[in-house]
């Protein structure tokens, strides 16, 4: 098929790295590996940071102009066979695809759409209504987590839903170099206010409880909350923590291979691409049993998921992997097997083929 791909929150070509951008790129790659021709339909970023009517109205004007541009393009060059909208949610609804798909009788598909009733306040209620309308009319809504699936089911009971597990391109992890330092902890996360800062805060508190153990840590990440994040670790020995800042994605596997355990509390994580990469590199994970994290980490098999907000339990799980070499080694091997065999690009290509084959295309 000729597929028009659109990510209202962040284009696959956006200059700032993030999990959203990475998954958008992975979906494009998976669709292409499945034999489809994928065209980036629009670079328009429809992101409403705050519920402000003035900003919303301005974005709607931009969306109408983009619909007009694409209408002329499709009239001239022919329409796509399918519109694929990645990650529409209350702050970034898709105001382009559904209108075009309806006008040209093209199947409309969403991936990682989300809906939460607690967001139905003020302007957010209006933007969520747009998401609900798109989900209701979509030929298929591809869910990455049971949490998102349940949210859509509760709000739109008749929505057409299908599951696709979060995945990564495992090609860069196929060869396993010599194992890194088993007591070196690794985390990869942006430094921004909100959930990220809260996760860094919890991590610092947990490490403070196991200072007697000989751990060191590498931190990959940067952002506007850098100073606030580093301040959380001020009470820990500075020589134990290596702040690597923002690095190129191609360099991340090398950092992961240098360590022995991946640690990240995971407040607010939709699922966390970094957890997938860490396990592919053979690192067992310590995270919280929260949000979408259980979709990508198997408790007791590829890592430990601790009760939300329980710093002592989080610290204890890290300690357990630091001191129990045999258990850490077994979990490391299972983590790597899990991702390479079950969460690879090839697995995603096969699953997408199954899902899309059910959609009638004219």
UniProtKB/TrEMBL annotation:
One of its GO terms (molecular function) is glycosyltransferase activity. InterPro entries: Glycosyltransferase_grp1 (IPR050194). It comes from the Bacteria. Keywords: Transferase. The keyword Cell membrane does not apply. Coiled coil: none annotated. The keyword DNA damage does not apply. This is Glycosyl transferase. It comes from Mesorhizobium kowhaii. The lineage of its organism: Bacteria, Pseudomonadati, Pseudomonadota, Alphaproteobacteria, Hyphomicrobiales.
